[in-house]
Amino acid sequence: MNACRRTWLFWLTAVLFLPATLIQVAVAQAGSLRVIDVRIEGRKVVAPKEAIRIFEGDVVELRWVSDEAVTLHLHGYDIELQLRPGEPAAMLIAAHATGRFPITSHGWGEQGRGHGAMTYLEVYPR
Question: What is the pLDDT of residue 27?
């Protein structure tokens, strides 16, 4: 295998596995993973009713369940998650940036239309 190809494979592997590795390290350092269940019904977040509040350095798993297919996007952290009706899906967040970040919908159902803030992730400094 030539050097160029080895270098390319190294960087591809690093890009694919580095985020997961960083989250695992953060969980190990934090000592625990906080799980928050989030439920969408009728294109609205019904639980929790308020914004999701966490602290810088927290590692959080948002467990989403929706009654309709939708793609969610956590702005500021640039995390996307596709939901299927009735199937739980996890969004893993290592809170490194503070602020108020919208979690938006990118399409509803099979038509894939619609875009709007579902809720907010508020990350407070420690």
Answer: 52
